[in-house]
């Protein structure tokens, strides 16, 4: 059975960008791509089907061999994505998003809840299309939480397919306890990547810079194609996916796609995502 990737689409430019990323990804791992549009009433079904047919043509223009199927559901997009993904056994969701100010004003915390409660990882995409190299350079922030190590399982799978280099980054804390924990996680991550034959490098956030500023500086310097973050859903020390950090990373000015992973599903996902 083929791996299934999902793109919820509202037919916007960023949704078309997400389709392009998903098609390129699907072509590499021989996956089935599913397009989903949710309408509020039955009256919108036929129009949605016509637009989905056009989106399928757009997808096929990137790879004629990609298997693309589309579905219309009646309901609420923020409530139905997770249910649809579970019903169809989706392994990864690509979703278009705008810069965080608009993201917050238009969809607010509802879309954030879709991501943070999802049993499936998301790759959030702005207008920037995937180039011929794919996800060649991946930036991975590390914190002191043990769960953050789990996202490396997915990162390694992606890196294998794209022959990526992974760039680890940690805060340069003045607290000796935190500094020791961060160093231990960085050493573990490096060994894990080395054992999987993944090219990698390690970096510290420059003094005087916030974690997000350090991530963006590194992303610019290495020409990052993907940033991977873990949603810890709490206020633990140096937990990454707090609201302000999340908004900055998802809506970054460089328009770099962001992989969002929930820790409670990583083990399950790592066994199913990207398996031919």
Mean of the pLDDT scores? 86
Let me know the CATH homologous superfamily of the largest domain.
HUPs
Protein structure class = alpha/beta
Please count the helical segments: 9
Pick out the low-confidence regions.
Answer: 101-108, 234-241, 265-272
- Spatially, the strands of the biggest sheet line up as 3-2-1-4-5-10-9-6-7-8
Number of domains: 2
Net shape: elongated
- DSSP strand (E) fraction? 15-25%
Description:
With 276 residues, the protein is of the alpha/beta class. It has two domains: 4-125, 3-Layer(aba) Sandwich (Rossmann fold), CATH 3.40.50.620; 137-256, Rossmann fold. 45% of the residues lie in helices and 21% in strands. Helix 2 links the parallel strand 2 and strand 3. Helix 1 (13-29) packs across helix 2 (45-62), helix 3 crosses helix 4 and helix 5 crosses helix 9 (263-270). It is elongated, with a radius of gyration of 18 Å. The termini are close together. Residues 101-108, 234-241 and 265-272 have low confidence and may be disordered.
